[in-house]
Amino acid sequence: MSDVILPPGAGTPLHLHTGYEERIWVVSGSLTVWAGSDAFTLRSGDFYAIKMNTPHTIKAGDDGARTLAITSPARFAELISRTGTPAHLATTETEWDMGLFQAVTEEFGDVILGPPGATPADLQRDTK
């Protein structure tokens, strides 16, 4: 389980997990989840489960979001541990090492399908 804090408007690339399901519980703020054909805005206390091999992305609301990300096996927690910057060391100048992130996600069988802002509906448009 990972305690994740997302600043306002922060989101993930469109992706899927081939080795685990992802469960998201919103502690505070709001979070929009696009998963397969579903799109939901979750608020404090809401929970959503994303099945394995489901294209999905998330975006924090205007006030940001604090979530608990639950995976089994705990690959997401390991991904954050290996590629993230601890909050007490992060500054406004801290940059994300996308190369390292990409390498670890590939090692875990995760697949990046599009940039932040892309949704699963974009995949359907691309195949037409």
List key phrases describing it.
128 residues, alpha+beta, Jelly Rolls, five-stranded antiparallel β-sheet, two-stranded antiparallel ribbon, 44% strand
Give a concise summary.
Helices cover 20% and strands 44% of the residues.
Number of helices: 3
Q: Which class in CATH terms?
A: Mainly Beta
Relative strand content: 35-45%
String of helices and strands:
EEEEEEHHEH
The helix content, as a percent range, equals 10-25%
- CATH fold-level label: Jelly Rolls
What's the CATH superfamily, by name? Answer: Jelly Rolls
Morphology: globular
Describe this structure in words.
- The termini are far apart.
- β3 and β4 (38-43) form a beta hairpin.
- Helix content is 20%, strand content 44%.
- Strands 1, 3, 4, 5 and 6 form a 5-stranded antiparallel sheet that branches. A two-stranded antiparallel sheet has the order 2-7.
- The chain has one domain: Jelly Rolls.
- By secondary structure, it is an alpha+beta fold.
